[in-house]
Amino acid sequence: IQDRYQSVLIAFFAALSKNSAVIFEDRNFRPYENLIQANVSSKDLKYLLSNVALVDSERMAQRNVTGSVRDVDGKKLLFPYYDGDLIKDTVKQTINSLSAATETMYDRIYVLEVQNGTTTQGLARNTSILLQGFGFDVLSSVNADRNDYEKTVIINHIGNEEVAKTLGDFIQCDNIITDEVLPDSAGYEVDTNVDFTIILGKDFDGRYVR
Fold it and tell me: Which InterPro entries has this protein been placed in (predicted)?
């Protein structure tokens, strides 16, 4: 549901930008204004929306804030996981990607498969939640072919080294293998519909590779 809300808002920004020449004419703005509930004056609303129309919606990245909802003084509050460090990392990486010369991270949403290569129950599922909060789409979280992986490994199926490094930086994993160079006897089981596969090893503490 949250993804749908974000998609609708981005579509709204795009429509404002595309039709700004018509919408913000004095004679045309009133009908649009009547469709919006706001606690600001008509003049301020027009000023606000005209600035929103300048936003490049195609470069906006959708991010979900993951955490636990708790009742505090009769109100439901969302407490982000890891005391907000996950949000800080996400914002930092998003800013870096926006300011970079390339826009690889925003070409599309990249699909992951997370495999649990340890005996820790729920590790793949919990890690999937973290990665979804970072903007990746997790197709599946499953057990690996065995549960005694010492080191976490990221398998790059599409040859995109930049995104692979971004993914690795997020969990502090530099053990990245490109799919094309894997030997037939490697034993990795992967889904061909995913861009990257992460096999979690014993060196992964639930957030970072140590």
Answer: LytR/CpsA/Psr_C
